[in-house]
Design a protein that fits this description.
about 140 residues; alpha/beta; five-stranded parallel beta sheet; 6 helices; globular
């Protein structure tokens, strides 16, 4: 079923340094009706967000080169305009509940997770962001 002009597909920013994970997650999310923008580390994610990208959800790996997921979360934490965007941490790294609470993470999935688990977490997070008035689309020219 094609989207009508009045409908927008929720946008997910996928931050993961593994191209195979990016591809698999992007395919899963696109098939489920999401728009996907990919970034290989926290620096790329920050650049996209500084450029005006406002996803419905951020899917974040913690272990990435240059700027890792925890450093990205700290950067995001001082930006009120970005703090309301739900974050789903999707990582093989150990992550404790204190990090989840202190960084306002919506969900934590440990790799490997099933496609169903991932879609459920993204759907719940996207719903939370929309209910809080969170943004759902990319600026023109981004994809």
């Amino acid at each position: 079923m094609a989207d009508s002009p009045a409908q927008t597909r929720p946008l997910v920013l996928v931050g993961d340094d593994d191209p195979d994970v990016q591809e698999a997650v992007s395919e899963l999310l696109t098939t489920a009706g999401y728009e996907v923008v990919r970034a290989g580390d926290g620096r790329e994610m920050a650049a996209l967000l500084n450029g005006g990208l406002r996803p419905a959800v951020i899917l974040l790996d913690l272990t990435m080169p240059r700027v890792n997921g925890q450093d990205f979360l700290a950067w995001r934490g001082v930006r009120p305009d970005l703090r309301r965007i739900p974050v789903v941490v999707f990582s093989a790294s150990a992550c404790n509940e204190v990090l989840v609470r202190s960084q306002m993470i919506t969900a934590l999935l440990v790799k490997p997770a099933t496609g169903e688990e991932l879609l459920s977490a993204i759907s719940l997070a996207a719903g939370a962001g929309i209910a809080a008035g969170g943004p759902v689309t990319a600026p023109s020219g981004r994809a």
